[in-house]
Amino acid sequence: MFTAALLAAALSTAPAAVPAEGKGYIPPATTEAEQISAMVAAAKALAEVLPAEDLKLATFSYGGKEHKFWHYIPTPLLSNPDAVGSPYKPYGRFGVPVEKMSQQAIDRMHALMRVSLSIDGYQRYVQIMRTEGVSNNEFGMTGLGRSPDSTPKGGITWYHVSLFGNIGEGDWGWRVEGHHFSLSMEVSGGKVRFSPVMVGYNPWPQVPTANLRAVALFNALSKEQQDKAQIVKTSPDKGIPNDIDRVPGKPTPVGVQLGELSTAGRLAYERLVDEYIGQFPDAVVGDLRAKLAKEASQAWLAWYGTTDHAKPYFIKLQTPSFLIQMRHNGVEASGYVHGHLSYHDLTAGTGSNPLP
């Protein structure tokens, strides 16, 4: 069985991008069709090296109940983690756990992630896995007063891989998920979809760039806009949502519509959006970036709490095409910051992100 020590060693030397040319180099995709082909090849390569028992454990129907159930905390902490079926024990997740996978299978899991993400995106998820592997649990769940008896120990082996549908045939997808990230990628209607995507940070030594860019956007608004956007004006406050909404559907926008932004506001909006979509591959992100830039005046910003990073706050940024949610817990007793960031595509329902 693969151990945490072996995985830590593998991650410490994992390449940040594809191998160097001449050593299995795969040039980055330049079109969406090439991107889909690369994802199909990488997903099939992973499936080929999973033993029959593990492949069965990892495979589910596209759009089924297992596909719709995604999470980023230890699911035994949920009120009824078994409500959707029979998840893998003790973690309460669907799919094959990394701790059961061979080194070859783990390498191919990382290859699938690398071809499906930008270099920055891949590094982001690997860094979260590394943090889970080295952080003392006192900074995490037990530090929040939860019983170790009902909380699985943190670590880089508790991530799970799931495959949905038949790879390369019709609508299909895959997910890598564990504590503080859920990465769902699908091909639906011949289009690459990234939704929902979630990353968390804890213990994190500094406020993430996304949070800094969100504050820059808020500060670029007029005083009248800020007053409308700031639904809750103090922090801490019971009116601040406790966490992101995992299944938001297509919510009614709240807060303030940004309208015509100043030059500083426009830059802040585009930089904040890019902090999310920049993790996706260049072959598909160009058109998405252009579309979201055009939607800047239609965007709605809602802010719950203050802009003080030492205290809790919650942010929603929504356009006709996407929804960003940010829950920041502030500085915790450990001295580190903790929070959750999510991205939902609102243009089309997918297997794991159904829309009304």
What do these coordinates show?
The protein is an alpha+beta fold and 356 residues long. The protein folds into two domains: 4-189, no CATH class; 203-345, no CATH class. The protein is 32% helix and 21% strand. The protein has ten helices and twelve strands. The chain has helices at residues 4-12, 32-49, 52-58, 65-68, 103-116, 119-134, 209-219, 223-229, 263-277, 282-294, and strands at 59-60, 96-97, 160-164, 172-178, 181-188, 191-204, 230-232, 256-257, 300-305, 313-318, 322-331, 337-345. Strands 1, 2, 3, 4, 5, 6, 7, 8, 9, 10, 11 and 12 form a twelve-stranded mixed β-sheet that branches. Strand 4 (172-178) and strand 5 form a beta hairpin. Helix 2 (32-49) packs antiparallel against helix 5 (103-116). It is globular and about 60 Å long.
Layout of strands and helices, then pairs:
Layout: H1 4-12, H2 32-49, H3 52-58, E1 59-60, H4 65-68, E2 96-97, H5 103-116, H6 119-134, E3 160-164, E4 172-178, E5 181-188, E6 191-204, H7 209-219, H8 223-229, E7 230-232, E8 256-257, H9 263-277, H10 282-294, E9 300-305, E10 313-318, E11 322-331, E12 337-345
Helix pairs in contact: 1-6, 2-5, 7-9, 9-10
